[in-house]
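DM from R.C. (forwarded with permission)

"hey, sorry to bug you on a friday — could you get me a structure for this? deadline for the figure draft is monday and I only need the backbone to look sensible"
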Amino acid sequence: MNKRPHYLFVFILCLILLGAALFFQLVVGLEPCPLCILQRLAMMALGLVALLAFLHNPSGFGDKVYGLLLVLGGLFSAGIAVRQVWLLSLPPEEAASCGPGLEVWLDRFITYFPQGSVTEVLLRSGASCTDVAWSIFGLSLPQLTSPVFVLLAFYLMWLFFRRNNNHIGEFSMR
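My reply, with the result:
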């Protein structure tokens, strides 16, 4: 199986998800929380790895390395999404923060990037992880998007375990 179109699909999906996040931030006016920012970073890394895999078109060991990086990124992103939905499901008196020191860690991480409007828009958070500022059909944005991230993680795992069949047209008894 040629995995190159799959890598392109993952790259385009990451661009769409990041574009949707920026749309909700800049057009709708929703402030991202630290978990949202962390998920954006995961999507950026996932998209970059998918783009590199598409351009490189690896086989053998290289394909497994790219696949493993994509699976880990997908699982990380799905884990963030599930954690945020879990935080939203807690009663207000039991609701925890986004994570111990996550805001401080993100601020330290951001200082390594060139400061400018792009960095500020992509990586600065101003909302709490348990605030629901927008919903549709009674579902918040994290509840609507978490199935997408979970399905993406399953898709990347399926792609990783798919055999790369470069012998198209040859007879095989395997």
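R.C.: lifesaver. The longest helix spans residues 61-89.
me: no worries. The mean pLDDT is 80.
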